[in-house]
Each structure stands twice: as C-alpha cells, then as structure tokens.
Amino acid sequence: xxxxxxxxxxxxxxxxxxxxxxxxxxxxxxxxxxxxxxxxxxxxxxxxxxxxxxxxxxxxxxxxxxxxxxxxxxxxxxxxxxxxxxxxxxxxxxxxxxxxxxxxxxxxxxxxxxxxxxxxxxxxxxxxxxxxxxxxxxxxxxxxxxxxxxxxxxxxxxxxxxxxxxxxxxxxxxxxxxxxxxxxxxxxxxxxxxxxxxxxxxxxxxxxxxxxxxxxxxxxxxxxxxxxxxxxxxxxxxxxxxxxxxxxxxxxxxxxxxxxxx
Length: 262
Known about the structure:
The protein is mainly α. It contains 8 helices and no strands.
C-alpha cells in the first residue's frame, strides 16, 4: 500500500466512526438516555484532550527543538490562534447546542435541527485539521510524527466519533425527522472532517516550516471545542460525575493508543 492510499485511508477512518454511530438511529428506539449521553460526551472530551497533547502539542514542541528554534514559541502562538479561530467561527456561524433553545452565532432563520447539526459540524472542523496535519507531517517525513502515530490519532477520533454520530442523529427522531433522514444528517455532520483533512494536507505540504504552528493550531481548536461545548453538555443536569468518568476513560484510551502505536 503506497503512502497516498494510506493517507486516504487515514482521513476516511473518522468518517466511518461517525457513520457507524449515526446508524444507531436505524436500530434503536427513542432518544439516547441522559446517562449514556453524558458518558459518551465525556468520553469524546477525554479523547480530544489526550489527542491534543500527545499527537499535536508535544510533536509541535519536538519539531521546533529539532529545527533549533524556541521550543515553546510556535506551540503557544499556534495554540492561541487555534482558540481564536474556533471562537470566530463560534461567533459567526449560527448553531444550537443540545439542551438549550437559545441559538448562538449570527441570527438566522435556520430551523432547530439544522443548527444542531451545525454545532456538531463546528467542532468537527478541528478534528479534521488534526488528522490532516499529522498525515502532512508523515508525508513530509517528520522524525517526530510516525505513520503509526498518525493512525493512532485517526483511530482515536473515529472511536469518539461513534457516539457523536448517535448523539446528533437520535434526538432528531423526537423532532419528527425520519430515521433515514436522521442517519443522513448524522453522516453529513462528519463529512467536514475528511474535507478539512484534505485541505490541511494540501496547505501544510506547501509550508512545511509552519508545521509546528499548524499542529498547535489544531490542538487549540480542539481544546476550544471541548471546553466550549462537550464538557458543559456532559456536566449539565444531574449525575455530572458520569461525564467525568467518561473523560477519564476517553483520555486513557487515547493515551494508550498514542503511546503504544506512536
């Protein structure tokens, strides 16, 4: 299998996770129980936090050190730019978080279901960037980013995308959306990830010296999504400790994947 096919497989894996999760709507009856939703949201948060550190921030520092630069500078700059980028999108794109009827972003006439999908799509953007930038590093033969490490990241994101696919699709049934359409909406929310990966790979391959900045940028964007959306939803209402347990499990699994395969 040549490098191009490996990279293509890597960027498709997260979408497969989302698709399988969305497919739960075809087999399950009713909405996801709050207990399970909190656990899965926490799990997704843990995966994204661990991936940000082990797969993005640490490689960013190591690459800068290998280049003879100030180890922390590109990482801090990229991280803050990533936070700012997601903050900008969060401010501009109309979207609606779960468990609330108050839309965020610019005012629009979009319906509730569309804005819920946009909320999930919004935090899928940094995941797509993260996958793209690590495979760009592999393509550039970076000594600090291995193919196994890149696949560890993409598998970890696919694992946390599985519950996300269900979380976006299952509630739509309660709003009168057909199962097939709810499944389609769940899949479409994840399509942004391979698109973001491809764009990131194309851009990064042209500006390899900026790889440490882009790695940290993706990490900042992911952390913003976790802090702004996933953790608050996992901690809302009763039994918030379930979300915390989910974070611990997700973080541990992603850490094991990255250390064992990276």
